């Protein structure tokens, strides 16, 4: 039951990231409020206010109609302009930065709320205008509702001014990278805090029973608590085979388990179905669930900035600054993740991207597309120098991995650059790294 609730929760999280989610909710509120005001007008709220507070009522039919008609036309224009700006933002972000950053921009809650305010005010004005109907030889005049329409329109104009300010900030690459960085840093810090620093060896799972995926999609998350309950209830040891964020094809093994023999095939199938229900599949990748995606996105922004069509090494250097801090934080986390029971016994092994693989994937791309720029190469050497100086490194093998990438960068840089001054600069940074690096390592190619 808990796994189903967790899946529903994750589905709602995915729905919340859609650009139409908050506008639809707020529009519905505006529509319901319009009907509520029509009901209040039918029982005479405007008549009561005319007698006791006439300043709160618009009591001229032509004025009310003109105001509401103008508001409706103006709001439609504002909405078209605002949606056009959003589309321009998404198109520019996709072209200049990376298509992977689009989900983060689309899920911007402030923009969704502003668009919802526009639509709610528009619906309210439309239904308030419709409620001005002939009543005998006079018109039923919803004077108080018209005053509220003026207030809502003023609020919409304020939201529009804020929207222009916000969209001008959101389209800047530094703002995009900073948001990606903060989300991934928060996720990494949570993972580091949750880790138990217990040295453990997990059993070889090559001969364990396999559970294959019954659908395709990204493995978004694992609901560990129900999975751990199943493991303890049936005395199981479990391994999550794919790395979180990997694209899973139908029929690929996702869970391996070992435990007591069950009484029959039906019970085995029921248990396997429950275990598989703890895996959440999705067609979206979210940094909130997978910090590795942040490395991919920031690296792709750096590579796009170095493309001939954009040629913006400054953005690439800024991206390397963010990557440097994320790598420094990643060095405080273990390569293997386990879930421990109350007796501190590892019962679930979760495969994760190792530090070596993560660093290689980032550096392989940067070396390939940025090695021709000596300033970027210099920045990469500074990044390695900073990482080697970290004292809170959880695993000393991480520094060996960094040394390997320094050697790879040195080889590519020397092969690319023939200018004596550039070669001198490269060698000077190698000398600095040798002074930082323990003596047992070598930077020879």
From TrEMBL:
Pfam families: DUF2254
Keyword Kinase: no
Keywords (A to Z) from UniProt: Membrane, Transmembrane, Transmembrane helix
Family annotation (InterPro entries): DUF2254_membrane
Record bears the keyword Transmembrane helix: yes
TM regions (residue ranges): 20-40, 67-90, 111-132, 144-164
Record protein name field: DUF2254 domain-containing protein
Native organism: Winogradskyella bathintestinalis
Species lineage: Bacteria, Pseudomonadati, Bacteroidota, Flavobacteriia, Flavobacteriales
């Amino acid at each position: 039951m808990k796994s189903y609730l967790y899946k529903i929760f994750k589905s709602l999280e995915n729905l919340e990231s859609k650009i139409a989610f908050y506008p639809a909710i707020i529009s519905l509120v505006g529509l319901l409020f319009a009907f509520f005001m029509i009901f209040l007008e039918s029982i005479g709220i405007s008549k009561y206010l005319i007698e006791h507070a006439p300043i709160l009522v618009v009591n001229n039919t032509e004025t009310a109609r003109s105001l509401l008609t103008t508001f409706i036309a103006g709001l439609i224009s504002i909405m078209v302009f605002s949606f056009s700006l959003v589309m321009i933002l998404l198109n520019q972000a996709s072209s200049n930065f990376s298509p992977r950053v689009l989900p983060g921009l689309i899920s911007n809650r402030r923009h969704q709320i502003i668009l919802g305010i526009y639509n709610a005010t528009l619906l309210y004005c439309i239904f308030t205008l419709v409620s001005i109907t002939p009543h005998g030889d006079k018109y039923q005049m919803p004077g108080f509702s018209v005053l509220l329409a003026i207030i809502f329109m003023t609020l919409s104009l304020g939201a529009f001014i804020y929207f222009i300010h916000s969209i001008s900030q959101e389209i800047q690459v530094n703002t995009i990278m900073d948001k990606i960085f903060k989300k991934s840093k928060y996720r990494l810090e949570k993972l580091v805090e949750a880790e138990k620093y217990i040295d453990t060896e997990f059993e070889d799972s090559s001969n364990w029973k396999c559970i294959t995926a019954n659908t395709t999609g990204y493995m978004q998350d694992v609901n560990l608590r129900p999975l751990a309950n199943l493991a303890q209830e049936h005395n199981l040891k479990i391994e999550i085979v794919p790395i979180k964020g990997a694209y899973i094809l139908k029929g690929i093994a996702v869970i391996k388990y070992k435990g007591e023999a069950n009484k029959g095939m039906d019970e085995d199938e029921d248990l396997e179905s429950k275990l598989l229900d703890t895996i959440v599949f999705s067609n979206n990748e979210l940094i909130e669930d997978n910090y590795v995606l942040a490395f991919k996105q920031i690296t792709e922004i750096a590579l796009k900035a170095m493309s001939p069509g954009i040629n913006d090494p400054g953005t690439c250097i800024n991206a390397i600054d963010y990557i440097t801090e994320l790598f420094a934080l990643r060095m405080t986390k273990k390569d293997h993740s386990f879930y421990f029971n109350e007796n501190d016994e590892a019962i679930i092994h979760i495969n994760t991207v190792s530090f070596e693989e993560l660093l290689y994937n980032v550096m392989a791309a940067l070396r390939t597309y940025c090695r021709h720029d000596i300033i970027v190469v210099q920045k990469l050497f500074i990044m390695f120098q900073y990482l080697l100086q970290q004292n809170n490194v959880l695993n000393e093998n991480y520094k060996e991995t960094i040394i390997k990438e320094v050697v790879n960068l040195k080889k590519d840089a020397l092969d690319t650059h023939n200018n004596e001054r550039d070669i001198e600069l490269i060698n000077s940074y190698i000398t600095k790294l040798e002074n930082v690096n323990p003596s047992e390592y070598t930077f020879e190619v």
